Amino acid sequence: MKVLGVSGLENSAAFKKIHWPHLDEREYRMCQGFDAAAALVVDGKVVAAAAEERFNRKKHSGDFPAQAIRYCLAEAGISLGDVDELAHSFDYAPYRAAYSIDPLAAKRYRDVYSKDALLSLVRRDLPEFSLERVQQVNHHLSHAASAYFTSGWDECLVVVIDGMGEMHGASVYHACNGKLQALHHISAHDSIGIFYSLVTLHLGFDFNSDEYKIMGLAPYGEPTRFQRFFDQSVDLRKDGSPHIPILRLNRTRDERENFVLTRQYLSERLVKERHPDSEITDEHRDVAAALQACLDKVLQHLCGHFGKQTGLRRLALAGGVTLNCTANGKLTRSGLFDEIYVQPAAGDDGAALGAALYRASQGGKIDNLRSPVPFFGPSYANTDIEVAVTEYQDRVEVVRFSSYENTCEQAAKSIADGKVLGWFRGRMEFGPRALGHRSILADPGHPEMRDRINAMVKMREAFRPFAPAVSLEQAHQWFDIPPLTEFPYMIMTVDVRDMYRAELPAITHVNGSARVQTVSAEGNGEFHGLLRAVGKSTGREMVLNTSFNIKGQPIVNTPKQALETFLGTGIDQLFLENVWIRRRWT
Amino acid sequence: MNLPVGNAIQDTVVRILRDKLEVEVSSSETDLLETGMIDSLKFVDLIFNLEQEFGITMPMESLEVEQFRTIADIVLLVSRFQSPAKAPSGVPS
Fold it and tell me: What is the ipTM of this complex?
């Protein structure tokens, strides 16, 4: 059975712009349906998956993922006619009555959420596809399936936490023997994801986009100053749910749409709203710290409650909130569970994968194997690289290595010399993290490296630390984890061992933590080979690993995009597969 | 609040609206939809809470928003769901 999963709601942001025309650009992110993606599952196995933003170059794009679909089909060598089902990761049909509550809600249902709206996009972009094969899967069920069916576990607790699905802010499932049984849903009125995003917006960052920056800012602050506010705002109930009354303050349609009174409340009772261009003060850092502490507590309360109730000691997580590495790390260290797995594409791109896996599971039992490092995106042939290089030949010097070993040797030498490298190999990652195929790499031991990459390459906020990628064999040496503990998806924070914190300034956060990626020969072989070579040149099988993009742009997909980004930034050298590229200085 | 007391279903509906949905209603005939007191999310929350409190199942697909216009309408709907004879298929007429 061949199932194509898709996510995103193309008309969602456009609908908001038409009906609320005078909002700040950042406020238009207060809606559903970003991060469109396509994923192809054939006979229960993930064959290909990619976010549409990587093709149309619009970050977080919610457009119907026509280009990602075409890529998935090409990767599998099949045509659209071979696809048994197209499964969308939203199903609003059960809530049709709820949306008939007023004319504007009804119009939004018709234009954005309904199956007819989906079918018109399918008709537009995939005209030859039979509409009878289009299915819809509940949003949280899609996320849950993405976590369960890639966990490698027959039985586990599954918790989905995001801003909201169709109507809910979090959902809990008992997964067993290929089935997902819903145990509990939490209303979007009590969504910790929405609450976190609103405070993110209040602090001058982007709703439903920049929450990871608040997570990065939090360790610079002191949580106790605003702890009382957050304790009072988020009540942890005995049934495991958070209760967040300030999300219910909004009475009129306009107030509800844009959380007007909630935001006013934050201004009056927490701190004044920060303008994005204004300075970040201790007050903002302290709010970020208290907010993060609040999320950490909610996650442990919710997951812990249902872990205890069911007796399940394995936990699988998905949904955008579970991209929060700090909260995930604290949950892992809490001892509430024996094992925790976070599906690496935990945001809405991953819901496309989940919709496909769920529908595939309805067609028959599928093999539940732990997700590999998610290199599910496109790769490019040497001919593609040569075409791109030729286009820029007057600006670059090129050396072609005959083997990967020689490539690694040169890359390791460059890293030891303090160079910043663009590193482009193999199939692109699925999900938000660059895991060694579309990465910017450098030596984490150079004290100026963080500021240098932040300013010259990423053009991003100076307070944010970078993540380390380290060989599985050496990870425990540098980080406070047991030997051979795997964190292959860069989705958990751990502590850098005390004695190495000063030695690793570029990847050690101010609180001593790091968003570690462990790299094994088995799971991420080529990247592991590079780390081994780096170990010989620097004494550490470790690199600083950050995504190959600049601020506001999606991660590069093609060799040409890699070259353009390289030439447009301060990256010192670029490796496109075994081709070593440097700037030509004239 | 000027709502008459004594009707157990009505009392519970009022309590759900007040305590769970934070919606204060002045009369059993107040139009919850026209006044914008109830939106799509609250509608779904209301159904969930009615199901929990009254031990009934209200299939979302079979409901119409008009059945929730006033507290009096909601009381009528709940009583139909509570009475299998009046709603033999589980769906009120």
Answer: 0.80
